[in-house]
Amino acid sequence: MPLIEILGLVAGTITSITFLPQVIKVWQTKSAKDLSLMMLLLLMLGVVLWLTYGLLIMNPAIIYTNSMVLAMSLILLYFKLRFK
């Protein structure tokens, strides 16, 4: 695997795990009142577009990163709707 691809995957991993503390906090407190629904929806739209782009050009780092961010965003959206 080329070094540049490893760099992209490491960067994607770090970017993706930035959502983890928020997911854990919302899950523990059972409160998502301070999360903006509009921010989550816009984030998910952007991530879906990036994921589509990554799939079209077959870039593993873009696909991996945006898949992880989309998963975390979907969890946060679920919590936002469940813990109003």
Please, could you describe this protein's structure?
This protein is mostly helical. It has a single domain, classed as Monooxygenase (Up-down Bundle). It is 82% helix and 0% strand. It contains four helices and no strands. The N and C termini lie far apart (45 Å). The model has no long low-confidence stretch (mean pLDDT 95).
Quick structural overview:
The chain is 82% helix and 0% strand.
- What's the CATH architecture? Up-down Bundle
Radius of gyration in whole Å, from Cα?
A: 14 Å
CATH class category name: Mainly Alpha
Strand count, sense and barrel status of the largest sheet are: none
Name the features.
4 helices; 82% helix; mainly alpha; 84 residues; Monooxygenase
Topology:
Layout: H1 3-17, H2 20-29, H3 37-57, H4 60-82
